[in-house]
Amino acid sequence: MSATTYQTAPARPVHAITISRILKAEWTKLRTLPSTWRTAAFALVFSIAAGAVLVISQADQWAIMTAAQHRTFDATSCSLFGVMIAAVLLGALAVRSVSAEYATGMIRSTFASMPSRRLVLAGKAVTVAAFAFPVALVSNFVGFEIGQRIFAAKHLQVGLGHPGVLVAILFGAVAVSLIAVIGVGLAGVIRHTAGATTAMAVVIVGGLTFGQLLPARVRGYLPGTAIQDAVTVHRSAGILAPGTAIVVLGAYAAIALGAAAMRAAHGDA
Fold it and tell me: Which of 4-8, 66-70, 136-140, 227-231 has the lowest mean pLDDT?
């Protein structure tokens, strides 16, 4: 008489189960947040529109530009100007994905069900970054195509096969995703929507404004300038290479998220 043996599927590690639960929970919260899809729509429309406005302005001014301006003209960067708008709007969405829970007190329930607070913040960052990336990517592709059609009237257009164009479109979306991670970090530290959103605006827009007072070699390491550099094809002195700009933004994202994780681990919810 032989004994019957049964094979069971190997159990998933507890750590993997926890991460899966966190990501699923964060995605559910993000997609059901009333402002999520509205913000995504605004980001698409306004970023594409902003790029088109700049392209029209640059095309109209082509005849009065200097020879030096003609040599450094970047049709790709102009048409991808909307990446700045997408970064601001989707960064603000990332802020709300965290600060809204602190405002309602729901964060206590989140931390109670998922005791690893660092993993919760990491899950929020991954979720909003993954959401922001395709929105920004679509915006970049559409904005680029519209911009080049406008530039075609002046014979200034470039194609997707032009060196550096696809990298600029892709890195622009990556830059927006990293700004979303920075938004999660700022919200985790400040814990108030208005304060964290203001900080986000200062990081992006304020950096571009006050960065003009800094030397060119330093300016590129500011977050707002790094976003611009990530979508630049024709580089001049002081402009970071796209890959370097992404590394700079990644460093800011790591610092912001690390600061939020430290506060979450050692402070009250």
Answer: 4-8
Give 248-257 pLDDT, tens digit per residue.
999 999 999 9
Residue with tokens 């470039």: 158
CB 200 within 8 A of CB 217: no
Domain extent for 259: 14-266
Residue 181 maps to a domain: yes
Give me the number of domains the chain comprises: 1
How far is residue 227's CA from residue 88's CA, in Å, rounded to a whole number? 11
| Confidence label for 37 from pLDDT (cuts 50, 70 and 90) | very high
The pTM of the whole model exceeds 0.85 = yes
The first and second tokens of residue 198, run together, are 């203001």
In angstroms, the CA 10 to CA 22 distance is 21
> Does 156 fall in a domain?
yes
- For residue 3, is it within any domain? no
The whole-number pLDDT of residue 34 equals 78
CB burial readout 3-39, b (16+ within 10 A) else e: eeeeeeeeeeeeeeebbeebbebbbebbeeeeebeeb
